[in-house]
Amino acid sequence: MVNTPPQVGYMLKQAQSLLHFRMEEALRPLQLTVSQYSCLHHLRREPGISAAALARATFVTRQSMNAMLQQLIDRDLVARPSRAESGRALPALLTDAGADALEAAEKLVDGVEHRMLEGLSGNESAALARGLAACVGALEG
Amino acid sequence: MVNTPPQVGYMLKQAQSLLHFRMEEALRPLQLTVSQYSCLHHLRREPGISAAALARATFVTRQSMNAMLQQLIDRDLVARPSRAESGRALPALLTDAGADALEAAEKLVDGVEHRMLEGLSGNESAALARGLAACVGALEG
DNA sequence: CTCTATATGTCAGTTTCCTTACATGTCACA
DNA sequence: TGTGACATGTAAGGAAACTGACATATAGAG
């Protein structure tokens, strides 16, 4: 019998689900969801990005992202002009409060990620990252 | 600067999200969602399992699982007694049609998983699986 | 210049899943 | 015996995501 890879897809789901749960747990004191954290994180990486591009980066639809951005705007964590200078895309930016919240959230999330990887050596972590990247590359396009 | 592991959590999310999308795509002709496939798959592995146990295995709440089971029962893919012989748990079982649907779905899903792993050697696949298992172990409990 | 393709934002409706809460059944143990 | 802890099923309501549809703005082809 062939050495069947023991359900890599299932293990992927299991790991992602558990990581999401732990992150949600860690972020609860800050009143942030994982999706909101991911949104803020990408906003810092690419200030002025459009909601549609942000949606693609965080794996939700642009409708969901616009709703989420509105929530973050209501909490003064994100700012967005009401009209575009050019084109339709409205650039989104972190406010100072948003940057502060992100920094606090990042500490908590980094703790979870560190815990997740603590049983792996540097080589093993790198191999895991490479494997995941290969999976993504093979499935997209 | 420390060799920061490049966002293993994010890559996990990315890979899982893309895999889910491809599976959904592959299963669409059979009118099955990924969650439903996962449910049928576990039902074959553990016939007579309760909805609550099934829910834990597929990472949803038992309320969601009971709703999903009802759908599958309505389509004659799953059968379940109306009363328990002992205890409260109602054992769920695949019908013949359910087993057939699962077999067809499995071919499609295996194709997706194979595609996902095609760029990886046997050693690399095994390393990926071990890495994921280590992550799960570190995050649970 | 005109027209098509593409990308963005938005509205409406639906689905799916979750949270909270409660009733029921079994088991361990005092 | 009976009582408390635990697991299961179920109901009701809400939150978050998706799909489908449409208007708008830009760029490019003809």
What would you say this structure looks like, in words?
Two copies of one chain form a homodimer. Chain A is mainly α and 141 residues long. Chain A has six helices and two strands; from the N terminus they run ααααββαα. In chain A, helix 1 crosses helix 5 and helix 2 crosses helix 5. Chain A starts with 7 loop residues before the first helix and ends with a helix. The first copy, chain A, binds a DNA duplex (30 and 30 nucleotides) through helix 3 and helix 4.
Features:
globular, mainly alpha, two-stranded antiparallel ribbon, homodimer, 2 strands, 66% helix, 6 helices, 141 residues, DNA-binding
- What fraction strand of chain A? under 5%
User: Which outline of chain A best applies?
Assistant: globular
Counted by DSSP, the helix tally of chain A is 6
Secondary-structure element pattern of chain A, one letter each: HHHHEEHH
Spans of chain A with pLDDT under 50 lasting ≥5 residues?
none
Q: Which structural category fits the helices and strands of chain A?
A: mainly alpha
Helix content of chain A: 55-70%
Report how far the terminal alpha carbons of chain A are from each other: 33 Å
**In what order do the strands lie side by side in the largest sheet of chain A?**
1-2
Q: Using CB atoms under 8 Å apart, which protein chain pair has the greatest interface?
A: A-B, 47 and 47 residues
Q: pLDDT average of chain A, as an integer?
A: 94
Structural Rg of chain A: 18 Å
Question: Care to count the β-strands of chain A?
Answer: 2
Biggest sheet character of chain A: 2 strands, antiparallel
Kindly report the oligomeric state of this protein. Answer: homodimer
